[in-house]
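>> received
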Amino acid sequence: MKSPGKGASRNLQPEYSWQDKRVLVTGATGLLGSWMVKELQSRGAQVVALIRDRVPQSYLWTAANVKNLICVHGSLEDYATIARSLNEYEIETVFHLGAQTIVSIANRNPLSTFEANIRGTYHMLEACRLTPTVKALIVASSDKAYGASEKLPYDESTPLMGRHPYDVSKSCADLLSLAYYHTYRLPVCVTRCGNFYGAGDLNFNRIIPGTIRSVLRGQQPIIRSDGTYVRDYFYVRDGALAYLQLAEAMPTKGIAGEAFNFSNEIQVTVLQLVRKILMLMGSDLEPLIKNEVTGEIFHQYLSATKARQLLGWRPRYTLEEGLKETIDWYREFLTRPQTFLEKETGL
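>> returned
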């Protein structure tokens, strides 16, 4: 190996290490939360998971090293629990992923969504502000924080104009986060991603797990809209790696107070997505198009130019690669659930 030239060592940045870093993950039983815990533990971090409900089939319990996971039971609406967790475990980095994420549930029950997504966010922001050990906070938002816009793709300069309950809750969380940076210089960044998918998603009213389950059962997959809605589908493994890369960059790149879109930057209609899943699964089933959706944005997709330029970030998986891995997981999980759980947990 060649030695670096004269002066080269002064330009080398030490590689970021998660070893023994104390990290809090909210929403740890969710899809992204489960993957974040898994990735952090694999890098040697000491992970504390804030968990409201114990979900027995959550990917968290099969993917994470549960023996080394500290679980704090409580809700985002409980400020005292959040503040205690940050202080007692001397948390350095927070991934605030916990939220009510289902649009249809938000439309049916907006108050619980506002409580979790808005109150829960300002509780976390305030608790982090008052906890001196916290050096970085990443708040998970959504492309839906932008609301409907004639200018697509959304970039980070697009105004936050949510109009429906879930969208508004995310617009508010974004604005609160940036207010805490500008007023208190809290080291916070906001992430805006599209629709996560991947192994471990148990919300079967979402189009990808719902379609895969229908095909495995020999049933017509159901499309609630007319099939022409455009969405940004983002593989959860890419999402977890993007969050880690952002957190690693925060101490050195001066990006606190910034928002970042993460996306594979492709435009896919719901019907195109369902047909791709059917093709990958070798199914000749035809989707049932119900055309009964109300209160949702028609076209949504993101530009990730800022993340590419400032962070050097790139997605590692194509849509087809992500779907293949996801389908394989559901085949195992849904066709032999008991054997699968026994094998993964050792129970």
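>> The longest helix spans residues 110-129.
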